């Protein structure tokens, strides 16, 4: 068990109780405590909505296991308790997790693991530890879990650390990074280090390493007590302002140089920003390229890059491609230049890593021929899609986007120069950068993202009841500089036994397709992490692929999240059986451009379920729209669902499915509902049977006139079709009965009548509605655009 006693920990949890978030509904609003220490067991409370019958906690990486015993709250839907067992070698830092309940899968939330022992603040009202005299003493190298308490007055938390002269006093805070709040800005904290007299020795608000979370470290000028003050930078009445403060004598470097190296090698790195002074350390790098976390003895890592090619370090000004260029913009206004040879026909990806690694550099790069001044490439900020992180709203912005990325195609064989500088002209001893230049490779990423960007189970989760189906839109994003334009197949990896994925081929240029997951009746209820990858249909084509899902864990005004989490796998849950199945009848006729079509939907009820079911379809072909959700009333089993196609809808054959969900819970997100899908059926879209060109006509007030239409038959149809005029000017009506036509007709004549007080003038946009009877369904099609002039009555 955790060293903290059961009673003390319970008091801590009660002290941290706060109002729930009223903005978009989430299943898990927050966890308490927000983290734990390696090698301990921690009882964790899940607070939220629709959390009845929890069955499993799914972690995205190893190191933490959850007990099978869940203790529900007095109101079970509000939450539960469960014990987390944290391994001695558990990775330090953020752990993403979800909870599988009997019928659902929660949003992704986080739990944080520390290398240090955890102690708790134990403040249940403001003023208990807000001064030097009341400061809570802490031993060196601990993680304090605390809270800026809610209330009309500002809460200040003070801690005392006793150190010897020459030792570090280091503070690092996790607050915004915890992602506790979904919306708001009251966990923007600041930290100060004070001496016994209250004199400020150091302070920090924002940090290049961790954005809104402060990092500060000093060398103690003498032996004695030092005080760490934690408070809001700007007071705002808080709701859930929890934090984890790492306090001790650990080294907290601000940068590592070089910021990476070649895979499988050991770099001799300079550790920068420690108040004791810079030092050199041998850092072994893993064999796999990508991001690497270097901790030393710090509570959070410095990020490094591992590449497949060698380092070039400034002031060396020449590189052989591919290469990784490493430097420090140590002085304001400094510009570094590197020479390299390149050939026409090559395409290189040039990517900067600086701000995204935690360095205080807002880089920009340029490339020019060695014998010219004109720039061939200029790059500053990047888009998230450029960085292979497509699963987000386009308006969101994170620090990684300050690192530019560019594609360079040499116009001729020769020597070129790459320049890098800070776009603001800043510089300093820890302004480290790394530029990786490698051949540009085609890539495609799948992602599952709700249009609003939030975690919406209805649109962005994979929850499959046993013996049933779940349909979700899988979106595809092209990698940076992609040249691949072919047809794709989707491949699922890691599916649980008894679960299959049914996916159409992805046509050229398509960015979204419906994908269905089916769970056999005997599939085990469980949660799993899976990948959905894109594979070229054409054999022998090289294409990298990956899965991407991103969450803004702490969004705020201006769509500038303080903390983002990106994962490279999707969570899929197989849940208990649903009380109904959805059956969608294949449409017997095509949906024509400019027309509408009724789909017949039925539900098969089971287990005495009689409640209402809402039906809708989430994916439709381009140019096809739908009516709002249709409800099958309690006790009923059938409904119709209307589709409309505009005149630009592309003709073709598509697979669509209809989803049905129970009512109650949250209709917007789908939380608290059981949702299943029908099997796919084929929807054909086609050009209309005919079009009508209306000739320009006129009618006199108080009299009748004629409008002549010329028919163009695109496809033969049987029987008669009735045609009515639409959008006639006020005071003009079509004379009944409406004329009818057959496939062999060439013209149609409409008789119209104008009232004596009809408004004279020229009216555009008169159209036709054609009503066909086909396979027992009335089909309405719209065509034509004519001009009718209403004239004043002529005097006798």
Question: Main attributes?
Answer:
mainly beta; 6-stranded mixed sheet; 5-stranded antiparallel sheet; 49% strand; disordered N terminus
Task: Please characterize this protein's 3D structure.
The structure is a single chain. β24 and β25 form a beta hairpin. This protein has 2 helices and 65 strands. Mean pLDDT is 92; it is low at 1-22. The strands form 15 sheets. The protein has a 6-stranded mixed β-sheet with strand order 40-41-38-36-43-44. The protein is globular, with a radius of gyration of 33 Å. The protein is mainly β and 796 residues long. Helices cover 2% and strands 49% of the residues.
Indicate the topology.
Elements (H helix, E strand, L loop, with lengths): L5 H10 L12 E5 L2 E3 L3 E8 L5 E6 L4 E3 L4 E2 L6 E8 L6 E9 L7 E6 L3 E3 L15 E2 L4 E7 L8 E7 L4 E7 L14 E6 L5 E5 L10 E5 L4 E9 L8 E8 L6 E3 L2 E3 L3 E7 L6 E6 L5 E5 L7 E6 L3 E3 L4 E2 L3 E6 L6 E8 L5 E6 L9 E7 L5 E5 L25 E4 L5 E9 L9 E8 L3 E5 L9 H4 L1 E4 L3 E10 L9 E6 L5 E4 L9 E8 L6 E11 L7 E11 L8 E5 L2 E6 L4 E5 L6 E2 L3 E10 L7 E4 L7 E3 L3 E3 L5 E8 L6 E5 L2 E4 L12 E3 L3 E6 L3 E5 L2 E4 L3 E10 L7 E6 L5 E3 L5 E2 L5 E8 L6 E14 L2 E15 L5
Parallel strand pairs: 2-9, 10-12, 11-13, 21-25, 26-28, 27-29, 36-43, 37-45, 47-56, 58-65
Antiparallel strand pairs: 1-3, 3-7, 4-8, 5-7, 6-7, 8-9, 12-19, 13-18, 14-17, 14-19, 15-16, 15-18, 20-22, 22-23, 24-25, 28-35, 29-34, 30-33, 30-35, 31-32, 31-34, 36-38, 38-41, 39-42, 40-41, 42-45, 43-44, 46-48, 48-52, 49-51, 49-54, 50-52, 53-56, 54-55, 57-59, 59-63, 60-62, 60-64, 61-63, 64-65
